[in-house]
Structure formats: C-alpha cells, structure tokens
Specification:
single chain, 145 residues, alpha/beta, four-stranded mixed sheet, 8 strands
Length: 145
C-alpha cells in the first residue's frame, strides 16, 4: 500500500461517513399544498391508527390541505421542516408542530396546525378561541410562503 495516499483516503472515508450520517439525521421535509381559495384553520392529526399514510414524493412528504381544513394520517413526523405551496393567496399564520409522547418519551402522536388568511382574520380567529375556552397561542408572525 502506498502510505503517501493513506491520509487522503482516510479523510475521504470520514467525509463519506459524515455525509451519510447527516442525511439520516436531517428532519423530514414536508410540502404543504394549500389550494386556491382556502382560508381558515388547518389541523393535521398525526399517528392516527387506521388513517392513511402521507404521500411521499422522493424524500418529501406531501400534505394536500382539504377544503374542510382537517386531515388525519398514520404518519408521525418528528421535527419536520414545512414548505408551503400556497395557491390561496392568503398568508400562513400561527404554524405549530406538536408531538405527544409517552411518559418515557416515545412519540405516539402529534399535530400540525396553522391558519391561512389575512392577519386581521387570524387575530379574530385567535380571539374567538381565547374567549370560548380554546387553546391560547402567542401571536406569531407571518410565515413566508
């Protein structure tokens, strides 16, 4: 073996191992498709037994927002990074991703929520939830879509 090229080969092996490990540990990518004309709340319940899994396109999960604004899936996304394809023309407000875990920290379910519309409509919806005993969330800024 040529000992002069050994350090270069060793570096190449470590580089490949690092790239492979970082690919496995990267958060799942989610494409949220918001249809034209959609406004209002959206709720995705994850980890729901007997619900269909999310569609995958390559390495990305696809969430097609239904007109009802509610969807359930057996897929459980942990630390997902969402990208919005917004044909509705409204802004996305109040995005949240929550996981439900057992006492020993095992994820068993979760939800993704957000609002599509104007800031005024989002604030009005939040006020309705807060006055009706719904969950209060801090005011979030508009997400870029």
């Amino acid at each position: 073996m040529n000992w002069k090229i050994f350090p270069a080969m060793l570096c190449a092996v470590f580089l490949l191992a690092t790239v492979a490990c970082s690919k496995q540990n990267s958060p799942p990518q989610v494409i949220v498709e918001i249809p034209s004309g959609f406004t209002g709340d959206f709720l995705l319940e994850m980890g729901v037994k007997d619900a269909p899994p999310l569609e995958k396109r390559g390495d990305e999960y696809v969430v097609p927002v239904p007109r009802s604004g509610k969807m359930a899936t057996s897929t459980l996304l942990i630390n997902a990074h969402a990208t919005f394809q917004n044909a509705s023309g409204g802004a996305v407000w109040g995005y949240s991703h929550a996981l439900f875990k057992t006492g020993d920290g095992i994820p068993i379910g979760g939800k993704i929520e957000f609002f599509v519309g104007t800031r005024k409509d989002y604030e009005a919806e939040q006020n309705k939830k807060n006055h009706s005993g719904g969950v209060s969330t801090p005011a979030e800024s508009r997400l870029q879509v």
